[in-house]
Specification:
It is a single chain. The chain is an alpha/beta fold. It has one domain: UDP-N-acetylmuramoyl-L-alanine:D-glutamate ligase. Helix content is about 40%, strand content about 25%. The protein has 13 helices and 14 strands. The protein has helices at about 25-30, 40-50, 65-75, 90-100, 150, 165-180, 195-200, 200-210, 220-225, 230-240, 280-290, 295-310, 320-330; strands at about 5-10, 15-20, 35-40, 55-60, 80, 105, 115-125, 130-135, 155-160, 185-190, 210-220, 240-250, 255, 260-265. The strands form two sheets. A nine-stranded mixed beta sheet has the order 6-5-1-9-10-11-12-13-14, sandwiched between helices. It has a five-stranded mixed beta sheet with strand order 3-8-7-2-4. Strand 7 (about 115-125) and strand 8 form a beta hairpin. Helix 9 (about 220-225) crosses helix 10 (about 230-240), helix 11 runs antiparallel to helix 12 (about 295-310) and helix 12 packs across helix 13. The longest helix has 16 residues, at about 165-180.
Length: about 325
Amino acid sequence: MSKKYDVCAIGNALVDYEIEVEDQFFTEHQVEKGLMTLVDEDRQGVLLQSVEGKIKKKQGGGSAANTIFGLAELGGKGFYTCKVADDSDGMLYVNDLIKAGIDTNLDPDNLFKGTTGKCLVMITPDAERTMNTYLGITTDFSTKELSEEAIKNSNYLFMEGFLVSSPTGLEAMKESKRIARENGVKVSLTFSDPSMVKYFGDQMKEVVGDGVDLLFCNIEEAELFSGVSGIEAAKEAISKVAKEFVITKGKEGALVFDGTAYHEIEPFPTKAVDATGAGDMFAGAFLYGINHGQSHAQAGRLASAASSAVVSKFGPRLSQDHIKEVLSKIGK
């Protein structure tokens, strides 16, 4: 019997504030370029004041959310489990999910008291994105927010690595994995960011535990997690904890392991404008592909084309015109 959802994802719900800055902004404000840094509300407030008038866009985001939006944009059916507050950012977030046709645990008429998390996505002329994140109410994302029914009714559970930075988030990941395992639902995980593997390595290993069915990471994350260097050593190490995996390699494409064979996925060259959400979109398109009859190699090619389309514009979303372009690129 087919399941209701292709993917049930859990993650930190954050409203993305997209801002264009120059490199000197990081020097002036002591921001570490190229990484996701967790900050408190006061610190984020200072940064927001200094970029007043430069905010390009505001929209619902977060690593797993971007993945589930990517899946939905291609026509997949997703459920997203998260936590937002009853403020204007929280309502914006709920409305984004509703418009995209993504089911959620959130009740628009009964949101949580507090402040919705925000992520300042600072984009430099070299298209690199640097994120400063105040988690707000999603700091307390926990097992209470999980929908056991949604997990059971999905082909895949998809967990965002950023959740390991919170003790309650870590417990939610472990519990959702347990529910998935007990109900024959495949478990997929993204490491999300090198900082999560670097500073929360023990917690990440706890989530991986006896292994996952599908893992998404980039080379740096794979090396940090396994304590080795180089793609050959990394893929060997990752194959011990993931039945299948994707290692993205930026401009050089990606490496996909389908459980028996490796597939080199060619990149689709593009003029990079903003790298925000490229890895998230890769995961969303890949999950769409393998849920809809594509081989791992075909799904990798679709994901490569979709992520290159995301990089060529501002923000992590693709319009239906972008989707048509992506499909024409891969001959669909």
